[in-house]
Design brief:
With 52 residues, the protein is mainly α. It is built from 3 helices and no strands. The mean pLDDT is 91.
């Protein structure tokens, strides 16, 4: 589900290609290799606490 954001038009339109996009892509790659720490940190810093 997290990975699907990169397929949305908003990803390229609203998320900075120099700062935000590389971080998202790195987090996705790490998660695919078994390390979800980047996605977990992003969710904890970006989402309401009651959602996680």
């Amino acid at each position: 589900m997290y990975k699907s954001i990169v397929d949305q038009p908003a990803f390229n339109k609203y998320f900075d290609a120099a700062s935000f996009q590389p971080v998202m892509l790195e987090n996705i790659e790490k998660a695919e290799l078994g390390d979800p720490s980047g996605i977990k940190a992003d969710i904890q810093s970006s989402c309401r606490e009651d959602l996680w």
